[in-house]
Amino acid sequence: MNDALPTWVDVILVPLINLLLALVLSGVVVALIGKDPFEALYILVNGSVGSAYGWGYTLFYATNFIFTGLGVAVAFHARLFNIGGEGQAALGGLGVALVLLNLPLPHWSVAILAATVGAALFGAAWAAIPAYLQAKRGSHIVITTIMFNFIASALMVFLLSRVLLVPGAGGSPETARFADAVHLPNAYDVLPWLGFSRSTPLNVSFFLAIAACVFVWALIWKSRLGYEIRAFGHSEQAAKYAGTSPTKIIMIAMLISGGLIGLMATNSVMGEAERLVIDPVQGAGFVGIAVALMGRSHPVGVFLAALLFGALYQGGGELTFEMNGMTREIILVIQALVILFTGALDNMVRAPLEAAFLSRRRRPAAPGPTSPKGADNDPVTGTQS
Amino acid sequence: MRVMTKLMGAACALALTTGAAAAQDAEPGLIIDLGGKFDKSFNESAFNGAQRWVEETGGEYQETELANEAQREQTMRRMAERGANPIVVLGFANASTLDVVADDYPDTDFVIVDMVVDKPNVKSIVFSEHEGSYLVGMMAAMASETGTVSFIGGMDVPLISKFACGYAQGAKAVDPDTNVIVNMTGTTPTAWNDPVKGAELTRSQISQGSDVVFAAAGGTGIGVLQAAADEGILAIGVDSNQNYLHPGSILTSMVKRVDNAVYDSFTQAAAGELESGISVMGLDNEGVGFAMDENNADLVDADMQAAVEEAKAQIIAGEIEVHDYTSDLSCPAF
Known about the structure:
The complex is a heterodimer of chains A (385) and B (334). Chain A is mostly helical.
């Protein structure tokens, strides 16, 4: 991606330094409110990856973030900034709920396929309107997608308090529970010997998330469509000249993006809640943006970044539970610092590192062309403006 | 089974050497719901109830705050596994989670506020918000000079419509021609904490002729009460007694004693008297009601108070039936 830095620095060292800086600053914040930062760090790490129990939740959250992160990443490759993940995932949840409540599905294996289709279709449909407005009318996708988040929440409230709720159940705005037959096996059912508890939320849709990673990798780097998406992302003019239709690419990239984000519902709605509640997304759509940024829009990076954020979510939950005075606002501060350093302040670390590596490379091999540091053609940092 | 638990509980208490004085099995637990501990409303009321119990008994309890929806089940189970007993959960959103969790911890008692869960180890505490709202609706219609009163809710969910429907019924019982304007603040959880929008909605309702506004919208209500005071109309507070916020401009508050629900649960559990089943906190047992104090004494004249007290007695006696919106998701008054 970037000639100035060796791959391992770009992919591993830079994010690690960013993470370290975020943690140091978080430690300062924790110390400022009068708590022991090292104890907090221990609880954070141990609570998220220190036991099968912690892993069960960490990977559950990570599954959500993989789906939303991949969706945002695909749009990034076409230089489209899809911040409508909240709405697309909520609609995905609606798709899953409608499929599972209305079709007599005999077994979870059939049900997950049907739910996948429902989730992807609804998520994609919710992305289709902003995509069309961008492609045909030039309405900026950032504005339209975020506005669609609000329309989605209004739609969900309407449907759940007027249409889909169970009559006579006291008026709780949620659908009925899905049938037992479509209960997705969780980690305890699949891998009982690993010590997961019976109630662990991690379920087989984790494998679906891994499959989605492979799919995105093959799509972006191994298919003609992926090439077109990337070409369009790098230069719309060049892509047009080469015969690619911008309308087509915008539509397809956004449909795939929305579909992937909608798939999150197979994990959160079908796998965990087993019913549709009023806000099934809980911010995962926005976390997906940070995940895609940190993961450099590559499936492997997205997977790792999703793991990190999953650990932060789970460890953060443990922290509020274990440490008196660690309110959820402090957890939010820590998570926000990580997002700030890994996403927004990425160049703060990257630029000096690039300079350092360039000067080191120049010294031993004085002659020869130094790699030109031209326009930053990274699809991640160069979003459409 | 019960004896076994007692023995184990006693062993735990000895091992920990805390709370050994009381003959209680375990510390009670309280799970604060989404929206936060200091929402000046529902959660805060529960927290105050727990604090009152601490002050009066010197006991200790476990408390945690939910940060997101997925933590609901996780937190409930963590509390149960840590030995908290009973565990009090707040809000309708917990019902179907508790329905599953309660089975797995048969020796732990749970208390759910605002919803019914039918399990042998769950006590369900529900409030008759429609009855309390009916009374303040009557007061609103009597205090109104324009014949138009209004309501501002948080989100358009059935629980809030239950408030609105009771309020409208009360207003129309005084004068069938009373115009009742109903607005909801928003569709995302921020609707419970958006005082600016609450104030805007109030001004818009004033321009439509309303001169008494009732807010059932959590933190959003603070903006409603403020705007009403600024514009010189009357307002009605909710959940806690909010009369003191703007003395002279708050007609009354529809109080919902969530604090009593928590306090009573903790007290009963310590005495070993917590019973499962449904407990309805209504007008008869002071679970809901309208608040009278020195801040609104000048606003409520003797006639008004007599009329409301009479209606209260009639509702308790079953002579007036206030329709509950959540029973059939419809309201005869609008």
